[in-house]
Amino acid sequence: MNFKDLILQGIPSNLPVKRDYDPSVNHAPRRKEILNAEEKILALRNALRYFEPKHHPTLIKEFKEELEIYGRIYMYRFKPTYDIYARPVEEYPGPCLQARAIMLMIQNNLDPKVAQHPEELITYGGNGAVFQNWAQYLLVMKYLAQMEDDQTLVIYSGHPMGLFPSNKNAPRVVVTNGMMTPNYSQPDHWEKFNALGVTQYGQMTAGSYMYIGPQGIVHGTTITVLNAGRKIAKNKEDLAGKLFITSGLGGMSGAQPKAGNIAGCITVCAEINPKAVTTRHSQGWVDEVCTDLNELTKRVSLAKKNKEVVSIAYQGNIVDVWEHFEKENLFVDLGSDQTSLHNPWAGGYYPVGMSLEESNNMMANDPEKFKIKVQESLCRQTTAINKHTQKGTYFFDYGNAFLLEASRAGANIYKNEDGAFVDSTAFKASDLESAAFAYPSYVQDIMGPMCFDYGFGPFRWVCASGLQEDLDKTDEIATGVLEKLKQEAPEEIQSQLSDNIKWIKNAKSNNLVVGSKARILYADAIGRTEIAQAFNNAIAENKIGTVILGRDHHDVSGTDSPFRETSNIYDGSRFTADMAIQNVIGDSFRGATWVSIHNGGGVGWGEVINGGFGMVLDGTKKAENRLKSMLFWDVNNGLARRSWARNKEAIFSIKRAMVQEPKLKITIPNLVDDALFSK
């Protein structure tokens, strides 16, 4: 059978040949054993319901083995034999263009060049899954190939519940991931219910089919590093010769060294997994690899002296780097961390003093001891960072739950009103969530007030043709739109537009594409709408092929995350999730091609609710109407909430939006004189 026939086949009626486990692939770590004997039987029943009873005697043995060895049932036998990557949209079967575009995006998320653990259907973050197993993948692709323009595919945590009659203006796919009732969102709940095969961790853009490789975070990371550099600059100097220390070279975190190069600094990024180091180095995302701390110190010292722009991967543990540089008195200008601390006990963070293999073995066979080792390591890392910051290092939490997990580990991560470190044992457990961390979230200091409150966030597009020439044309179109908007933009957003114009002009030369022909560009509602409109016009004129729009969930409106996206909300509402839910509902009836809502993306299970969308542009008037309606709402929903929280930049932005669109009527907060509270 050819590729299209295999897609239309779905789950084959005859069992495919059992596949051998490929040790050369970067596999997910073994999950800890959490099911009792009765629950293991339930997990097997749940897995076998995808298959005809005649196959159950063969598959039950196989699935039982997977559950025992890996802690999950992935159904490796059913992984397709064809190559998985983002093909041109015309190569997918089916009568519905929108459905074929979604198939393209799904395959991009599972492309071995893109995905962190492709055999386990995990795109990034250690546990950010597209599907729970290969049967779900096969069924979803078959349903999409059968879909017509008046049907909607409903997906519960990777499982396709089925195609339902709807209408042409409805989303073609609605995705939910990990949506638990509130009392069941602790980390072990994910372990248990995921092992049972009834829920999954969709991360942000993994389970919503909008991941575009490490490029997806490069722009935001570049903006963050540039503005962090501006915060520490004494005479408006740039980052030449300044050192940025961080960790993580896996999925999203792999963007850090590339962003450091674009920002113009020296970047040292530690990573314990040699496969991740090799991948990023071979892809050109990091310049050099070092395995010896003394050699690393010499190399960094030379780079500082010569003011080089260079990125170096240290294959080892980040704690050793912080401690060694402190011992050698090597000054660190900027510091952060982007290990997957939303998933600290199952491969997101590796403790110092243990090898990768030792850690993987302990997390599966002695999870309680492994948790202790992780927390001890976090305390050591925090102690070393504190020593550096006392010398002048600017450290920020990069939204990976580093500060949160360090606080839970008992690290000295709090400061009092005088700026002195306070032992976490001085706080009651109930006070920890609201206590003042010693270091800001990058959203609090940078992305929130400088970008999100002005409506700027990570807008994305994918050229469904797969042609480089189409991507080049979209870069040109977007540049032209931004340059025109900058001429009339108010002073408050001139710097944002200038940074974004510089970014898009240099995007091709920075070799950002891994997988689909995609681009990311921070833009506000006006910019997104104008760019999308220009794309749609170009499609209508046959200048480019179909374009798929989307964004990261890490955006103005899509995510309620009290320790990241909404950490600069100070009216007491940062722990609420109304914004994300309203966002996905509003996107659904305003024209999104598909929508998703997740529990847990970015900072951990139970810590965040986040949503996203995809929108297919085909050059029609209907597409134009959809993009104008949905993109305006998708941003201004968040600006309205941020404005109500009394964020002055957001108040400015939403007032400006009301001038541009008279039908927009937003409740503006009345500000209270602080002097009233001192009487």
Could you name the key traits of this structure?
Urocanase fold, 9-stranded mixed beta sheet, 21 helices, alpha/beta, about 675 residues, 6-stranded parallel beta sheet, Rossmann fold, 19 strands
Give an account of the 3D structure.
Helix 20 runs antiparallel to helix 21. By secondary structure, the protein is an alpha/beta fold. The strands form four sheets. Strands 3, 4, 5, 14, 15, 16, 17, 18 and 19 form a nine-stranded mixed sheet that branches. The longest helix is centred in the C-terminal third of the chain and has 24 residues, at 621-644. It has three domains: 3-196, Urocanase superfamily (Urocanase fold, 3-Layer(aba) Sandwich); 214-398 and 400-440, Urocanase like domains (Rossmann fold, 3-Layer(aba) Sandwich); 447-676, Urocanase superfamily (Urocanase fold, 3-Layer(aba) Sandwich). It starts with a helix and ends in a 19-residue tail after the last helix. The model has no long low-confidence stretch (mean pLDDT 93). It contains 21 helices and 19 strands.
Report a brief summary of the structure.
The protein has 679 residues and is of the alpha/beta class. It is built from 21 helices and 19 strands.
Which structural class should the secondary elements be placed in?
alpha/beta
CATH topology of the largest domain: Urocanase fold
Number of helices: 21
Biggest sheet details: 9 strands, mixed
The dominant shape is: globular
The domain tally reads: 3
Give the CATH level 1 class of the largest domain.
Alpha Beta
Protein name: Urocanate hydratase
Domain Urocanase C-terminal: 452-655
Domain Urocanase Rossmann-like: 213-446
Catalytic activity: 4-imidazolone-5-propanoate = trans-urocanate + H2O
